[in-house]
Design brief:
Helices cover about 30% and strands about 15% of the residues. The chain is of the alpha/beta class. It folds into 2 domains: about 10-185 and about 250-325, Metallo-dependent phosphatases (Purple Acid Phosphatase, chain A, domain 2); about 185-245, no CATH class. The strands form 5 sheets. Strands 1, 4, 5, 14, 15 and 16 form a 6-stranded mixed sheet that branches. Strands 6-7-12-13 form a 4-stranded mixed sheet, with no helix packed on it. A two-stranded antiparallel ribbon has the order 2-3. Strand 14 (about 275) and strand 15 form a beta hairpin. It is globular, with a radius of gyration of 19 Å. It starts with 7 loop residues before the first strand and ends with a helix.
């Protein structure tokens, strides 16, 4: 069931933080029904992917979201962590699972059948949604790729054949999964590399997809780690500019996560809402209360914070939660 354009609570990357999720659902006015499933009398949740990996409560997080989805109270999109897990477990030797899934594998160790069943369920979840008056994806809306995919898969679902084809770097599936769940990236010039704060060395960096007429590398940077100073102000060459994606201000509202934002939650623009605020790394778990509006408002952001269980530093929408569910 894909959500309509009204009464949706869009929630960013959870990464196994079930306690944070329950606090956020409670703040949004959701309650458990007789089956123990979180629900709201007028609203539904749209999860933007990355339920798994990293956090301490992965199994519970998945079970909360899955139960809500199966009873029609939520829709779950696939993030890059779900795509990676599906690829690793369906198409590869399970003994060679990527390091990023270490916590997930460990927490499902005593219930392997439950994990396999979870993977089958994840394969039924959509990759992206074009709701007409809004769009939702884990990382980036590339219209060329998304529209081609949805023309053949209007329900937004992938399948095992797409996972298999995605192993070929030249395939459409590989480009689709990479762009929609990981976002656009640019290579550092001169074959340079940089080491992130978590100790990973990379030759690429994450870029925004809304920069209008960017001039230099710094203009399109969209990640917590800064660029080397001598590269930040270097002019973008034509080849790099052609690799960028642009989501214009005249496009419908777009909801996405993935990018590890920091600080007080805010909108990128009145049609762009990135809802990943590093909850698993001590930040916030963020939602946007969408009611079909053509232009988004920061007043409708709601969040809970890791370092303050009694956090009330949310928006006006938070104060309206009790009114909505009455």
């Amino acid at each position: 069931m894909l959500p309509s354009a009204e009464a949706i609570d869009v929630i960013g990357d959870i990464h196994g933080c079930a306690t944070l999720l329950k606090r956020l659902l409670d703040r949004l006015g959701y309650r458990r029904n007789r089956d123990g499933v979180w629900h709201h009398p007028q609203r539904r949740v749209l999860f933007l992917g990355d339920l798994i990996d990293r956090g301490p409560e992965i199994v519970e997080t998945v079970e909360i979201a899955r139960a809500m989805a199966e009873q029609g109270h939520a829709t779950v999109l696939l993030g890059n962590h779900e795509i990676s897990a599906l690829t690793a477990f369906f198409l590869r030797d399970e003994r060679r699972v990527p390091r990023i899934h270490k916590e997930t594998v460990e927490q499902y160790r005593n219930c392997p059948e439950r994990w396999r069943d979870t993977l089958k369920w994840l394969l039924e979840c959509p990759l992206c949604i074009d709701g007409g008056s809004y769009r939702a994806v884990h990382a980036c809306w590339d219209a060329t790729l998304a529209e081609r995919f949805l023309d053949h898969h209007p329900d937004g679902r992938i399948d095992r054949h797409m996972l298999m084809r995605a192993c070929d770097p030249q395939s459409f599936s590989h480009m689709l999964f990479g762009r929609l769940t990981r976002g656009p990236q640019l290579a550092l010039p001169d074959d340079r590399s940089m080491t992130s704060r978590d100790g990973v060395t990379r030759r690429t960096f994450r870029t925004s997809f809304w920069a209008c007429k960017p001039r230099c590398y710094q203009d399109v940077l969209f990640q917590p780690d800064p660029l080397p100073p001598d590269i930040a102000q270097r002019p973008l060459d034509d080849a790099s500019k052609r690799r960028l994606v642009f989501y214009g201000p005249d496009q419908p509202p777009l909801f996405f996560g993935h990018y590890w934002r920091q600080g007080r939650p805010e909108l990128i623009s009145d049609n762009l809402a990135c809802l990943d605020y590093s909850g698993v790394k001590g930040g916030h778990l963020v939602a946007y209360r969408f009611d079909g509006e053509a232009r988004l408002s920061a007043d409708k952001l709601v969040w809970v914070s890791v370092d303050d269980p009694a956090d009330i530093g949310a928006s006006k929408a938070d104060m309206q939660c009790s009114q909505i569910c009455q």
